[in-house]
Amino acid sequence: PAPPGEKPASGPESQSPEAHPEAHPESQSASQSASQSARAKKVNLFGLEVSASERNAKRALVGAASFLVAINCIGLPFVLPKFRRFLGAPYVPMKAATVDILFQQVLPTWARTRPAGVQKAQGIVGLRLVDFGSGDGRIVSKAAVHGMRAVGYELNPYLFWWSRLRQRRALANAPGSGEFRLANAWSANLREADVVTFYGRPGAGFMALAAAKCENELPQHAAVVSHFFEIPGWEHLLVQDVQGLKLYDLSLRSKSRAGEDSSE
């Protein structure tokens, strides 16, 4: 006991828990939240069991989901050609030497054989070309350089913008015209085209679908150039095969039909 005349000490050691009953719930809740945040949880992430706190586990899952969404968005343009509605071939650029042969030999030779009523005085100058899957734009650009009016259809946005940037200067100085469209080539209107070019592929019916579209829409005296791959059922229309460039003359359709009728 304190001596007479002196007050009891008021230090923290002298205070009993009953003096501040409200201090205990706060400290207990704080310690509980700290223990919960520090508590580790096991998370199965892509087959791997990872031990992490609840907050870090949520961050990891959100990050993984965002990564997967980004990867799918980036890779989608390269996957679309596998679907029937957007059916196409993988991007394989034509060699520069082969492009030169196309516009300096193959197409001019074909143009000289066209009937007088549709033949151009300057060969391929002024003819209209449609390129299925224009890729980096080299065919459209070279066609414009040789005086043609060319349109390239490309479904891949990366290749579309790359072709516009890469061929901008060549198209600006070309005597002809060139245009790139970010669109599905199967929606292209071929009824006024003179030449259609594409780099096809076997399987999935691509060549047969391309042949059907060209045969239904192209004018009588048009030509189709397939790089490397043959068009099934068009053997009687093949007039040139130079360095893998196969030119099919659709004006021979009427001759073959006339031959079939006479044989009957």
Draw up the topology in text.
Blueprint: H1 23-38, E1 40-45, E2 48-53, H2 54-79, H3 96-112, E3 128-132, H4 138-145, E4 149-154, H5 157-166, H6 168-172, E5 177-182, E6 195-198, H7 206-217, E7 223-227, E8 238-242, E9 245-249, H8 252-263
Parallel strand pairs: 3-4, 3-6, 4-5, 6-7
Antiparallel strand pairs: 1-2, 7-9, 8-9
Helix pairs in contact: 3-4
Task: Give a structural overview.
- By secondary structure, the protein is an alpha/beta fold.
- 40% of the residues lie in helices and 18% in strands.
- It has helices spanning 23-38, 54-79, 96-112, 138-145, 157-166, 168-172, 206-217, 252-263; strands spanning 40-45, 48-53, 128-132, 149-154, 177-182, 195-198, 223-227, 238-242, 245-249.
- The strands form two sheets. It has a seven-stranded mixed sheet.
- Strand 1 (40-45) and strand 2 form a beta hairpin.
- It is globular, with a radius of gyration of 36 Å.
- The termini are far apart.
- The model is unreliable at 67-73 and 75-84 (pLDDT under 50).
